[in-house]
Specification:
Length: 119
């Protein structure tokens, strides 16, 4: 897949992820926060908790699992979340790192979601 097509699919997946979160009672505060440490795809809030969500968009198949978000990525997310909270003066309590896998099936024209909280 070329990078142009990948970016289009990635943006589509993030749009789908935002709609999924909103349907489940989240408020999407910000998207695509960039820093020198890394990137956060979606920052959402539900109640007093802040959710920092890494989105992966995959066609149905072997790569459409929670394993598509690696330990290295989770580590970078943690560092980026600390920077985000510092810049926005958000206390680092009620902080939740999560992954949202958007899985699409072209044949059935169906999209499913896998939401996982990282420990």
């Amino acid at each position: 897949m070329d990078s142009g097509r990948g970016k289009i699919i990635g943006k589509w997946g993030e749009d789908q992820a935002c709609a999924f979160l909103i349907r489940h009672g989240f408020f999407v505060k910000e998207r695509n926060f960039y820093s020198t440490v890394g990137e956060l795809d979606i920052i959402a809030q539900k109640g007093e908790d802040y959710y920092f969500v890494e989105v992966k968009t995959r066609a149905i198949g072997d790569l459409a699992t929670d394993l598509s978000i690696t330990a290295v990525k989770k580590h970078k997310m943690g560092k980026t979340v600390r920077k985000y909270c510092y810049q926005r003066n958000i206390p680092e309590t009620g902080i939740i790192l999560a992954g949202l896998i958007v899985v699409y099936n072209r044949l059935l024209q169906k999209t499913t979601f896998r939401f996982a909280v990282f420990i």
